[in-house]
Design brief:
The structure holds 2 protein chains of 2 kinds.
Chain A: H1 2-38, H2 48-84, H3 88-91, H4 95-114, H5 121-137, H6 140-143, H7 148-167, H8 169-178, H9 182-214, H10 218-223, H11 225-253, H12 258-287, H13 302-309, H14 356-382, H15 396-408, H16 428-451, H17 462-474, H18 485-513, H19 517-539
Chain B: H1 2-15, E1 25-29, E2 34-36, E3 41-47, E4 57-61, E5 67-70, E6 80-85, E7 91-100, E8 106-115
Classes of the chains: A mainly alpha, B mainly beta.
């Protein structure tokens, strides 16, 4: 029962860690924004609403952080007590307990202090240092045997820089939205731009230093889950840098054309913010993986990756259901498996290996899904031409994908397998797949109404939001603690899908939100191409 | 029904955080599937991370599936756990471990070995 429930909610832990990191960034980003951007501008402006809005966001972020940290601490303590027979008195001295309570306490101080109008900057900064230290105490750096002080320092710098830049972005957006005077907006943009540039340099420098220790070699970068996740972070950071550079250029142009440039800056900042928080989710995913340098055996070689991704004709004929492995029991226990050698696993993790029938079934599913997405992408490309306006019905293809996934993705479960509809939710993979089905249905319906002119305004943003959220969720999908080779090879195809999903989502978002026509025309071509590429990647997906 | 549901709900939330983890076993004595001489066996596990020994545990599963919790000796190094199991007669055993890493992650696993 215990391991079964752990299996179900295993992937949620990455989301929770991501949520805690995001809230930490928002709190620290809010305090830094207040001290670095708003305070120097106090004598300049008459827009009192700016400070009030920023205070409110910091207040709620700190409140959320305090609750989430306490939740983490007490659930971890409950698990430890339940599995080892320790008492609460024994657990309170653990590092995670001290760190969690300290972070929650410091967040509570921020909540109390932020509502006071004056003389609180020192208190807020001190509380921020405590929050940052608490997070560093529960990072990889705290547990390392070698280079520990240096890694602790680099982790602190990396997280602080992330908070200043990504965590500060919502405050920039709020401030710009509340600014009634152009000169106030100009001042805020200039100050934040300096902070973001400095933060970026620190973030990249510290990240580079950590990757030298945690990854260490090229074969670890592509041969381990940690390495592959890190590469995906670097790709997302590159996209973020492009957006950041565009915003930097806009800030430079502000003195010339503030009224025309500011709306563009706000829209790019929205995308920067979204991709930034996706990066934080990817970082949370990394914290659940052992550093690449620690996995000496079980790494995937370049030749194995090349063999796996080399093009092959898709499998379009379904294997018989009788070829599948029998449904595993819901009370499956990792103990007593026949695997030999050193095994480390998170309670609830599955070590079940797929047979040839299971692999054929999964590949067939992915290939048909790829065909559907490829068709939708090509229709979306064609819809840009006035001669094929019917292509605008492309979102309906995704309803077919949702039905297909619901029926085929998990053959052990209803309607194809022995497990009932409700029992099936007790399996982590199935829960994730069902979540994706709901997302796909929401996406296709909303986008079809938008594409056919039935809905206008904010409803159009549902598609990019769902698309970007789907990509971000995919970054957390399937995480093997033991870095079983096969799971990593599957992940090698999932990560491009996640990055293409995030790119498609934010490209469409910008197409809808940007005020000027030329960049919108370019972006309108980006997301359909992303769809086509997603279809191609799925069509070449293989598990053997 | 309602009470069972709420108990399960508490349990579900109580289990969420364990699932993230990354302490991995680097080497063990005895090695996995190795044969050692009894009746007293020294057990040594080295991890890739600092381990909170006070909140970690080793259990030896005896032939016949009975198990015995082992007393941990002082750590020779922050990444290593050591214990001595006595009275191990000829047979197949499993060393079950659960560790709390210094970064707050809980991980567990097992090492099968034989005594001749």
């Amino acid at each position: 029962m215990l391991t079964q429930l752990l299996d179900v909610f295993g992937f949620l832990s990455v989301l929770l860690r991501g949520g805690a990191l995001a809230l930490q960034s928002l709190v620290l980003g809010g305090v830094l924004f207040r001290c670095w951007v708003l305070r120097p501008a106090q004598g300049l402006w008459r827009d009192k609403g700016i400070a009030q809005s920023c205070r409110r966001l910091t207040f709620w972020s700190a409140m959320g952080l305090a609750i989430m940290e306490l939740f983490y601490v007490f659930t971890s303590a409950a698990i430890l007590m339940g599995t080892t027979g320790l008492t609460m008195q024994d657990v309170v001295g653990a590092h995670f307990f001290i760190a969690g309570v300290a972070a929650a306490g410091a967040a509570a101080i921020v909540v109390a202090a932020i509502t006071r109008p004056k003389h609180v900057s020192a208190v807020l900064l001190a509380a921020s240092v405590v929050i940052l230290s608490a997070f560093v105490m529960t990072s990889h750096a705290a547990g390392r045997m070698e280079h520990r002080p240096m890694l602790i320092g680099l982790t602190a710098m990396h997280q602080a820089a992330t908070a200043a830049w990504i965590g500060g972005m919502p405050y920039l957006l709020l401030a710009l939205a509340r600014s009634r005077e152009v000169r106030t907006a100009q001042f805020i943009c200039r100050r934040f731009s300096r902070l973001a540039t400095l933060s970026l340099m620190v973030l990249v420098g510290a990240g580079w230093g950590m990757s030298l220790v945690y990854v260490g070699s090229a074969d670890a970068a592509y041969g381990t889950t940690y390495g592959v996740m890190l590469v995906s972070k670097i790709v997302l950071l590159s996209v973020l840098l492009v957006l950041g550079s565009l915003n930097f250029l806009i800030v430079c142009r502000l003195p010339v054309d503030a009224a025309g440039s500011l709306p563009c800056l706000r829209r790019f900042a929205e995308a920067e913010l979204g991709i930034g928080f996706t990066l934080i989710l990817a970082a949370a995913s990394l914290t659940s993986q052992p550093p690449a340098t620690d996995l000496i055996s079980g790494r995937v070689h370049a030749a194995e990756i090349a063999a796996r991704i080399s093009p092959r004709w898709p499998r379009l004929v379904t294997p018989d259901r009788s070829a599948l492995s029998p449904a595993s029991a819901l009370d499956w226990s990792p103990y007593g498996t026949r695997q030999s050698g050193l095994q480390s696993f998170v309670p609830g993790a599955s070590l079940h290996a797929n047979g040839p029938g299971d692999i054929a079934w999964s590949e067939y599913n992915h290939h048909w899904a790829g065909l559907i997405v490829l068709s939708a992408g090509l229709l979306a490309v064609m819809a840009r031409s006035s001669h094929a306006a019917w292509g605008r019905h492309w979102p309906l293809a995704f309803l077919g994908l949702a039905v297909f996934l619901f029926l085929r993705a998990d053959p052990e479960n209803w309607p194809l397998g022995p497990r009932s509809f409700w029992q099936s939710f007790a399996v982590a993979d199935v829960l994730q797949h069902r979540l994706f089905v709901v997302l796909i249905v929401a996406f296709s319906i909303f986008e079809w109404t938008v594409q056919t002119g039935r809905t206008f305004g904010r409803a159009a943003l549902v598609f990019p939001a769902v698309c970007a959220a789907g990509g971000a969720l995919l970054l957390t999908h399937s995480h093997s603690l033991g870095n079983v080779k096969e799971e990593l090879l599957v992940e090698v195809s999932h990560i491009p899908l996640a990055i293409l999903g995030v790119t498609a989502g934010w490209a469409r978002w910008l197409e809808l939100r940007l005020p000027s026509d030329r960049p919108r025309y370019i972006l309108a071509g980006v997301w359909p191409v992303c769809f086509v590429l997603i279809g191609v990647v799925l069509l070449n997906y293989r598990e053997s | 029904m309602g009470r069972r549901f709420s108990q399960n709900l508490v349990l579900v939330f109580a289990l969420v955080t364990v699932a993230s983890g990354h302490a991995i076993l680097i080497e063990t004595t005895p090695a996995a599937n190795a044969t050692v001489t009894g009746p007293v066996v020294t057990l040594r596990l080295r991890f890739n991370s600092r381990i909170d020994a006070a909140r970690s545990q080793l259990i030896v599963v005896l032939p016949g599936s009975r198990s015995r919790k082992l007393l941990l000796q002082p750590q020779p190094s922050p990444d290593t756990l050591i214990s001595r199991a006595g009275g191990l007669t000829r047979g197949t055993y499993k060393l079950r471990w659960q560790v709390l890493a210094d970064d707050g992650h809980i991980t567990r696993g097992e090492v099968p070995f034989k005594v001749n």
